[in-house]
C-alpha cells in the first residue's frame, strides 16, 4: 500500500523534498503542493513533467499525482532589480526574435504591431535590427527624422508615427543604404537610448524587432531592458527550427529568464490568395508544432507564404491592414494568442513582474 512515508522517501531520493510545501496521500491519490525554483513558466512546466514521469516510473500508472506548483516569492534584491529596470508608461515589452536571418521576423513584427494597434492598443515598435533595419521601409516612414522634444526638462527623441504605431529605428539615423557596422557595445548603447531617451508616452506594447541570431547585442538588450516576453519567429525548415532551440535557450538562460510567449511559424505553407483552402506545405509540415510541444511553448500562429505579404512589405503598408483579407484574420488570431500567453505568463509571476494589459478589444483583460 502507498504510504506518506514511502512518498516522502521517494521525494528525498529525487531531490525535490525541499520544494514540497504539502503532501497528502489518500489511497492511490497523491496530493503535492510545491514551489518551483524560479517564477518562469517553463520552469514550472519542466518540474511538472519531471514529477509526473518520475512518479509514473516509480509507482506505476495506478497512482494519481495531483500536483500544484506555485511560484517562489521574489527576493528583495530581485524586486529592486525589477523596479530599477521598469520603463515608465510602457506596460509590456515584447522581443520578436529569430534564430536565423531572413525568416520574416521584421515582417511579422510590423504586421503584429499594426494588428495590435487596430485592436485598440497603444503600440510602439523599436527596430533593433542594426544589421538591416527594415521598419522604415515596411511601415512607410523612410527618410523620416525623429525630432527632439523637451519633456520634464529632458531632451527626448520623438518616435515617428504611422498606422497608429510609434516607431524608432537606427534606419532613421544612418540612412537606409548606409551599412551599419557597429560593434556590440555601441549598438546596444544606441538601442538603450532609443528605449529610454525617447518620448514613447503610454504604451500597452513595445515590440522590439531584434537582430537575427543570438549574439552579444541580444544579450545586452535583453539584460538591460525589462522584457516581458519573447516571441520567436521561424520558418518550417529543419535548419531554421534547429536554430529556434538556440534562440529559446538564450531567453531561458538563468541570468536572463525571459518567458517565451510562443512560436510564430512564418511561411508555414503556400496558398494562392484566390484559393485559400489550398495549402501547399513546401517547406515541411508540423515541424514547428512538434518542436513547440517538445519545448513546452505554444504555437501562436501559422502565417502563410503569400505574394501580397512581400509586396505589402515593400510598399510600406503591412498586409494585415488589408480589411477582410485572410492575412488580417490570421494576424488577429495570432495577436490574440500572444495576449493569452501573456496573461497566462502574468498568472505565473509575482505581482511586481506581472504586467498590465489596459485596453482590450475582444480579449481578456488583466490589471
Ligand atoms: N509570409 C510571407 N509571405 C511572403 N513573403 C514574406 C513573408 N514573410 C516575409 N516575407 C518576405 O521575406 C523577406 C524577408 O523578410 P524579413 O525582412 O521580414 O525577414 P527577417 O527575418 O526580418 O530578416 P533579417 O532578420 O535577416 O533582417 C521580405 O522580402 C518579406 O517581404
UniProtKB/TrEMBL annotation:
Binding-site residues for ATP, renumbered to this chain? 99-106
GO terms under biological process: cell division; iron-sulfur cluster assembly
**Recorded GO terms, molecular function?**
4 iron, 4 sulfur cluster binding; ATP binding; ATP hydrolysis activity; ATP-dependent FeS chaperone activity; metal ion binding
The protein's matches in InterPro entries, at most eight in alphabetical order, are given as: Mrp-like_CS, Mrp/NBP35_ATP-bd, NUBPL-like, P-loop_NTPase, YlxH/NBP35
Q: Which UniProt keywords apply?
A: ATP-binding, Cell cycle, Cell division, Hydrolase, Iron, Iron-sulfur, Metal-binding, Nucleotide-binding
Q: Which SUPFAM superfamilies match?
A: P-loop containing nucleoside triphosphate hydrolases (SSF52540)
- The parts of the chain that form a coiled coil are none
- Similarity remark: Belongs to the Mrp/NBP35 ATP-binding proteins family.
Briefly, what is this protein's role? Binds and transfers iron-sulfur (Fe-S) clusters to target apoproteins. Can hydrolyze ATP.
The record describes its quaternary structure and partners as: Homodimer.
> Which named protein is this?
Iron-sulfur cluster carrier protein
- The source organism is Chryseobacterium taklimakanense
Gene it is expressed from: minD
Amino acid at each position: 500500500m502507498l504510504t506518506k512515508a514511502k512518498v516522502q522517501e521517494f521525494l528525498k531520493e529525487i531531490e525535490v523534498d525541499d520544494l514540497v510545501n504539502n503532501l497528502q496521500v489518500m489511497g492511490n491519490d497523491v496530493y503535492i503542493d510545491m514551489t518551483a525554483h524560479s517564477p518562469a513558466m517553463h520552469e514550472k512546466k519542466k518540474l511538472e513533467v519531471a514529477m509526473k514521469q518520475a512518479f509514473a516510473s516509480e509507482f506505476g500508472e495506478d497512482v494519481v499525482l495531483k500536483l500544484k506548483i506555485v511560484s517562489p516569492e521574489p527576493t528583495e534584491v530581485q524586486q529592486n532589480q525589477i523596479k530599477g529596470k521598469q520603463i515608465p508608461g510602457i506596460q509590456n515589452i515584447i522581443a520578436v526574435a529569430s534564430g536565423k536571418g531572413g525568416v520574416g521576423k521584421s515582417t511579422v513584427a510590423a504586421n503584429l504591431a499594426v494588428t495590435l494597434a487596430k485592436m485598440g492598443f497603444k503600440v510602439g515598435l523599436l527596430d533593433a535590427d542594426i544589421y538591416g533595419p527594415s521598419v522604415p521601409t515596411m511601415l512607410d516612414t523612410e527618410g523620416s527624422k525623429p525630432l527632439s522634444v523637451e519633456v520634464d526638462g529632458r531632451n527626448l527623441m520623438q518616435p515617428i508615427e504611422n498606422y497608429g504605431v510609434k516607431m524608432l529605428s537606427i534606419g532613421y539615423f544612418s540612412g537606409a543604404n548606409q551599412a551599419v557596422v557597429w560593434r556590440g557595445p555601441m549598438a546596444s548603447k544606441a538601442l538603450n537610448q532609443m528605449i529610454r531617451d525617447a518620448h514613447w508616452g503610454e504604451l500597452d506594447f513595445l515590440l522590439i524587432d531584434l537582430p537575427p541570431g543570438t549574439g552579444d547585442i541580444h544579450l545586452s538588450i535583453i539584460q538591460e531592458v525589462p522584457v516581458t516576453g519573447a516571441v520567436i519567429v521561424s520558418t518550417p525548415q529543419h535548419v531554421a527550427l534547429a536554430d529556434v532551440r538556440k534562440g529559446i535557450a538564450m531567453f531561458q538562460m538563468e541570468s536572463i529568464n525571459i518567458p517565451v510567449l510562443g512560436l510564430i511559424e512564418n511561411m508555414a505553407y503556400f496558398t494562392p490568395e484566390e484559393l485559400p483552402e489550398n495549402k501547399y506545405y513546401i517547406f515541411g509540415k508540423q515541424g514547428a508544432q512538434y518542436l513547440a510541444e517538445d519545448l513546452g511553448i505554444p504555437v501562436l500562429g501559422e502565417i502563410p507564404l503569400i505574394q501580397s505579404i512581400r509586396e505589402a512589405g515593400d510598399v510600406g503598408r503591412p498586409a494585415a491592414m488589408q480589411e477582410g483579407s485572410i492575412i488580417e484574420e490570421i494576424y488577429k488570431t495570432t495577436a490574440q494568442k500572444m495576449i493569452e500567453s501573456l496573461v497566462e505568463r502574468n498568472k505565473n509571476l509575482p505581482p511586481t513582474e506581472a504586467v498590465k494589459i489596459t485596453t482590450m478589444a475582444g480579449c481578456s483583460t488583466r490589471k
